């Protein structure tokens, strides 16, 4: 029998659903009847959004254990996908591993970091941009169940033609099963980082990112000013992080956050391969650099040769003037 | 106590080279291939763990590096020797071509079990990601295959007798995790700074023996790995379409306005 359920793992259902989750629901609808799954009880706002996106079937996983442990989360999800064709989750580090363990439990095929998801001859296909954005790879999952982590900005969120009333059911994992699934791992402590400048969107899911590097010489003021004018998140190079100019969570690159925004603006950044690995799949790339020979200009759509300390504030002012 | 540590390392195309696919597979030639840069960190971490031991225990300890890949992958093992590995295993077999995450983890697990057959393994170390596939899932899958606890993306690792404790920063949270040994631990590039190899190790690395195992040696069925066993199939792999040439604006007082005008023109604001 062909499976028609398309499961979406929601990351945060405590408030209104955020863009990336709405994107997943939009993609999932093209692949089957959507079932939404979360590790917490969805808020009224989340349920309203789910209804608007056409999701009637909502599962709350009730885990008598530590769902932040990969093995436990995967075990809790297993019964929710047994009749499913596909499960989609945001491309966070935790989700990658949870889906990997779930793949191990179910024999499912796994695609990590798909930038587009679609149907191909009855199978689920995931497309991604790899090798620092220089190659495009498209693959299909050949097993009955497909597990994919999906990058933000894959599609524009779109509500369903007709809204429905979601019904929440609970699927439980008992203490003994959770203990076994933890496999000996114990979470000693977990501390969420304070989000500084929380008016800005989170870096990993932002559709616009303004990033600063060594060329800021420690003054991220111009970067912040342009980011504010654009409603953008702030990124940085590892060098800027190592200098202590900005927190580690802002590092973009192969060992930092990988971003795929519609627009990336890099200021005072040379464009080293380590940095490019994390941003080169951005749709439109803009750079401001005083050196006309800098490597990042080779991968740009628009480049300004100039001093970021004057160029960025001027751009911000021009954008603000336009909005006023 | 003496320690026996397995470090799994991958041979990948150098990120500074023009990386490419042929027939849906990564090109991994000897000239531009290298040890995955992020796998220098688990090797260094293993060396440090041994350095923390007393002399007789250190002498009885071992760092076994294992790679799964084509013949050229031996280069990655030679590099690992330079960084301080004591023993090296190359798993090579034509049937491995086209392996996906699941197949790779299955073979690595079989290799770890074979190493453990000669004497218990205390720890399996891995990098946080291979810089070609960038999946970051092989360590978690390897732990599942081996039935060992997983402690991944560690920025700090402490071994205390038969317990491992890691600290890691993931998705905006700092976590401390603990598990009994043997465990699979993947480490990130903040955990240590790999040393530059000394002359003695560089010379020795050239001639140290590398053990080669085939699937038959590991008792792994060829249909479970490679293209035959893969749960994903590459439909196409193409170079990204050429970008339009860059619009370059040299700032003479209106660079910021030009930038804003570009964003407006492209509908980005
Ligand atoms: C294992 C490893 C992992 C790494 N991972 C990452 C990673 O994840 N992310 C990352 O970013 N890096 C990473 N790096 C570091 C990376 O290799 C580069 O060193 C780094 O990206 C360079 O940062 P930068 O562009 O800010 O500095 P630089 O390369 O020093 O470039 C500064 C640029 O600023 C320009 N400039 C100077 N003054 C001005 C001005 N007034 N106005 C405009 N432009 C100006 C200069 O022309 C120059 O091009 C890693 C390195 C290693 C070894
Ligand atoms: C561009 C690209 C995209 C791919 N996409 C998919 C996909 O969507 N689904 C899929 O199932 N497969 C995919 N693969 C195949 C997959 O990458 C290989 O199976 C690979 O060997 C393991 O994954 P990784 O390179 O992402 O490793 P990661 O999971 O990123 O590696 C983490 C660590 O595991 C260890 N390790 C990984 N591979 C080996 C090895 N061969 N030998 C020894 N140690 C190793 C290293 O310590 C490494 O640091 C893809 C490969 C490429 C090149």
Protein architecture, described:
The complex is a heterodimer of chains A (324) and B (269). The longest helix of chain A has 16 residues, at 308-323. In chain A, strands 5-9-4-1-2-3-10 form a 7-stranded parallel β-sheet, with helices on both faces. Chain A has a 5-stranded parallel β-sheet with strand order 13-12-14-15-16. Chain A contains 9 helices and 16 strands. Helices cover 27% and strands 29% of the residues of chain A. Chain A has 324 residues and is α/β, with parallel strands linked by helices. The mean pLDDT of chain A is 95. Chain A has helices spanning 19-29, 44-52, 70-77, 93-106, 175-182, 221-230, 238-242, 273-279, 308-323; strands spanning 5-9, 33-38, 57-63, 84-90, 109-114, 116-120, 123-130, 135-141, 146-150, 167-173, 186-192, 208-212, 233-236, 263-267, 284-289, 302-305. Chain A folds into 2 domains: 5-182, Rossmann fold (3-Layer(aba) Sandwich), CATH 3.40.50; 208-323, TPP-binding domain (Rossmann fold, 3-Layer(aba) Sandwich). With 269 residues, chain B is α/β, with parallel strands linked by helices. Chain B has helices at residues 40-51, 55-59, 74-82, 101-117, 138-146, 199-207, 215-218, 226-229, 255-265; strands at 4-8, 11-13, 21-22, 25-26, 33-35, 62-68, 87-91, 123-127, 150-154, 156-160, 163-170, 173-180, 183-187, 210-213, 232-239, 247-250. In chain B, the strands form 4 sheets. Chain B has a 7-stranded parallel β-sheet with strand order 9-13-8-1-6-7-14, sandwiched between helices. In chain B, strands 10-11-12 form a 3-stranded antiparallel β-sheet, with no helix packed on it. The N and C termini of chain B lie far apart (62 Å). The chains are: A alpha/beta (324), B alpha/beta (269). Chains A and B meet through helix 4, strand 5, strand 7, strand 8 and strand 11 of A and helix 4, helix 5, strand 9, strand 11 and strand 12 of B. Strand 8 (135-141) of chain A pairs antiparallel with strand 15 of chain B, so a sheet runs across the interface. The structure holds flavin-adenine dinucleotide (2 copies). One flavin-adenine dinucleotide (FAD) is lined by residues 213-215, 237-240, 251-256, 268-270, 272, 274-275, 278, 288-291, 294, 307-309 of chain A.
């Amino acid at each position: 029998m062909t499976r028609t359920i398309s499961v979406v793992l929601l990351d945060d259902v405590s408030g209104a659903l955020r863009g990336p989750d709405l994107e997943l629901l939009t993609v999932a609808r093209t692949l089957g009847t959507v079932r939404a799954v979360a590790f917490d009880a969805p808020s009224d706002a989340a349920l309203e959004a789910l209804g608007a996106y056409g999701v009637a079937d909502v599962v709350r996983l009730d885990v008598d254990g530590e769902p932040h442990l990969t093995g436990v989360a995967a075990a809790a999800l297993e019964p929710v996908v047994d009749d499913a064709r596909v499960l989609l989750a945001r491309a966070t580090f935790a989700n990658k591993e949870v889906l990997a363990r779930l793949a191990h439990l179910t024999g499912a095929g796994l695609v990590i970091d798909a930038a587009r998801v679609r149907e191909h001859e009855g199978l689920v296909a995931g497309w991604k941009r790899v090798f620092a954005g220089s190659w495009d790879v498209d693959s299909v999952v050949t097993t009955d169940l497909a597990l994919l982590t999906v990058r933000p900005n894959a599609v524009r969120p779109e509500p369903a033609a007709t809204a429905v009333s979601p019904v929440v059911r609970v699927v439980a994992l008992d203490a003994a099963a959770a203990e076994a699934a933890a496999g000996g791992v114990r979470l000693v402590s977990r501390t969420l980082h304070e989000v500084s400048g929380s008016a800005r969107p989170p870096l990993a899911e932002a559709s616009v990112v303004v990033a600063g590097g060594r060329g800021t010489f420690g003054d991220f003021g111009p970067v912040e000013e342009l980011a504010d004018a654009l409603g953008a998140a702030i990124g940085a190079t590892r060098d800027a992080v190592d200098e202590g100019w900005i927190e580690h969570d802002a590092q973009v690159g192969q060992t930092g956050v990988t971003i795929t925004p519609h627009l990336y603006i890099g200021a005072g950044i040379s464009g080293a391969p380590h940095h490019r690995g994390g941003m080169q799949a951005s749709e439109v790339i803009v750079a401001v650099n005083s050196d006309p020979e800098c490597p990042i200009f080779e991968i740009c759509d628009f480049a300004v040769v100039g001093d970021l300390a004057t160029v960025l504030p001027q751009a911000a002012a021009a954008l603000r003037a336009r909005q006023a | 106590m003496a320690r026996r540590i397995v470090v799994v390392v991958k041979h990948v195309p150098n990120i500074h080279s023009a990386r490419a696919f042929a027939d849906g597979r990564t090109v991994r030639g000897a000239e531009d291939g290298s040890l995955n840069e992020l796998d220098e960190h688990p090797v260094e971490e293993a060396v440090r763990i041994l350095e923390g031991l007393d002399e007789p225990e250190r002498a009885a300890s071992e760092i076994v590096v294992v790679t799964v890949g084509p013949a050229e992958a031996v280069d990655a093992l030679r590099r690992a020797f330079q960084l301080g590995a004591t023993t090296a295993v190359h798993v090579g077999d034509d049937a491995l071509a086209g392996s996906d995450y699941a197949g790779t983890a299955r073979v690595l697990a079989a290799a770890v079990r074979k190493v453990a057959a000669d004497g218990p393994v205390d720890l399996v170390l891995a990098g946080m990601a291979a810089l070609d596939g960038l999946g970051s899932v092989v360590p978690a899958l390897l732990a599942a295959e081996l039935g060992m606890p997983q402690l991944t993306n560690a920025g700090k690792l402490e071994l205390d007798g038969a317990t491992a404790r890691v600290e890691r920063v993931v998705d905006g949270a700092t976590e401390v995790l603990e598990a009994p040994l043997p465990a699979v631990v993947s480490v990130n590039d903040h955990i240590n700074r790999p040393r530059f190899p000394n002359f003695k190790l560089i010379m020795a690395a050239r001639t140290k023996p590398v053990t080669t195992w085939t699937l038959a040696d590991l008792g792994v069925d060829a249909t479970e790995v490679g293209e035959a066993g893969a749960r994903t199939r590459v439909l196409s792999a193409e170079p990204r379409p050429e970008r339009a040439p860059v619009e370059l604006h040299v700032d003479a007082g209106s660079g910021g306005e030009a930038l804003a005008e570009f964003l407006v023109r492209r509908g980005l604001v």
